[in-house]
Fold this protein.
Amino acid sequence: MSLLLNSLTPVLAQAADAAQTAAAAVPQDIPFFEQKALIYAAAFTSIGFAAIGSAYGCGSASCAAMGAWKKCYAQNKPAPFQLLIFAGAPLSQTIYGMIVMFIVMGGAANVAAATAGQWIAYSLVGVLAGIAMGVSALWQGISAAAACDAFAETGKGFANQLMALGIVETVAIFVLAFSIVLLSALGAA
């Protein structure tokens, strides 16, 4: 064991020296306008990623709704209007991403008093919240596609199917709530 520690000591010392050299090379002061631009970029990522997921989710649910309506028309059954609700369900994640965007943008207004590294926290919240909301919307759309098929075929279970879609959406609501908490801790909210 001591032989292993003795052989690792020079390697760890070199790693520590390399880390100190790298830290010294990073600029300590990022100008105000660059910090503000980085925070605005972080703000847009929250709505951007959420909107990508919403577009995919709504697209897949809408395709399923159209296919289900086609089956209904081919069988001379009435086409259920409720399928539009399933098709539009993934849109709400874009609204949640917009809320995070506005809160992050509020952080850009306070950036003059912020430390140089605060933009990193805003960026992480914006990117990760946007991705999480987008994935929630994507899966909500896939689930809504299955609900379209099931409801059009049977005409039953609309409330149950809508509740299942609500469970998938709850992920995005949790991400929104936790993002608000994190951003308020940064002083943006």
About this structure: Residues 31-186 form a domain with the Four Helix Bundle (Hemerythrin (Met), subunit A) fold (CATH 1.20.120.610). The helical segments are 2-25, 32-74, 83-88, 92-109, 118-154, 158-186. The chain has a mean pLDDT of 85. The chain has six helices and no strands.
